[in-house]
Design a protein that fits this description.
Layout: H1 2-32
Amino acid sequence: MWSTVAGIALIAFIVLAVVAISTVFIRNSRAKGFPTIEWSSHYDQARGAMPPMPRPEWADDVEPDRPNTDYR
């Protein structure tokens, strides 16, 4: 008996949570526009928007005829 009531309550809670999250997402999408890849700045560095870091000084210390086995 109680397990059936608890199961129904859990399913109802999950359904209401999904409906609430979907409603908020749809309202924000209509108000602000749907988020696109161009809108997000999280991937700017992967797309090359950030300047490259300069080479460290120790990277040019390798002699041309010797393999680089000096791990620092």
